[in-house]
Amino acid sequence: MNVQTIPSGLIQTNAYLLTDSARKEAILIDAPGDIWPKIEPILKAGGLALTELWITHGHWDHTQGGAEVVRQTGANVLAHRADQILIETPEVMDDFMGEKLGLEGIAVDRWISAGDSLEALGQSVAVRHVPGHCPGNVMFVFGEAEIAFVGDVIFAGSIGRTDLPGGSFTQLETAIRSQIYSLPCQTKLYPGHGPTTTVATEKESNPHVPA
């Protein structure tokens, strides 16, 4: 499995394109604005079918390009039901952003929950629920590959903001300690913004949630 980090959209949100050249399949994790023109040539060049779109959480910068991706590929959409209103009726975010974002809703095909196990590109993936930044934030843990896609829960040396509707620092801190710091220390973390990091690095030096 190959992982490509593709920053896109107004605030350069990370999308992650997971591909398997042998299977000729791909999965997209999060869909910021303008992501389709960036991934289309990669899919075409590899003869890859994008089968699924996994949404870490419902904030606009992670979903803005989702409807276009689904139209172009027919990919099945997976997300947590706690963010249903944000994903299906994203205009509610106009109020707390203070501007008209012109967002298009996405129909979710499967609602996932903590403890679910997914199959992706021949690998088993564990779903962990990590609220605090957003009620429905989930992370996708590829145990065998020792990597995890964490959305906006934690970043390299920082954490997700908790001052938006549905945010809670207490919840976020609990989620980080119980769901991220409990992973093997060598696990590589792929956040929604910025560079990758590891569980060990954040446990040792994250100033917001020390281990």
Q: Largest sheet, if any?
A: 6 strands, mixed
CATH topology: Metallo-beta-lactamase, Chain A
Integer-rounded radius of gyration: 16 Å
Report the β-strand fraction as a percent range.
Answer: 25-35%
- Low-pLDDT residue spans: none
Tell me the name of the CATH class.
Alpha Beta
Count of beta strands = 14
Which bin fits the share of residues in helices? 10-25%
Count helical runs. Answer: 7
Q: Strands of the biggest beta sheet: in what spatial order?
A: 1-2-3-4-5-6
C-alpha geometry: globular
In total, the number of domains comes to 1
Distance between the termini: 31 Å
- The helix/strand series, from N terminus to C terminus, equals EEEHEHHEHHEEEEEEEHEEH
In terms of structural class, how would the helical and strand content be classed?
alpha/beta
Q: Whole-number average pLDDT?
A: 95
Fourth-tier CATH superfamily name: Ribonuclease Z/Hydroxyacylglutathione hydrolase-like
- Provide the CATH architecture: 4-Layer Sandwich
Q: Which features does this protein show?
A:
211 residues; alpha/beta; Metallo-beta-lactamase, Chain A; 6-stranded mixed β-sheet
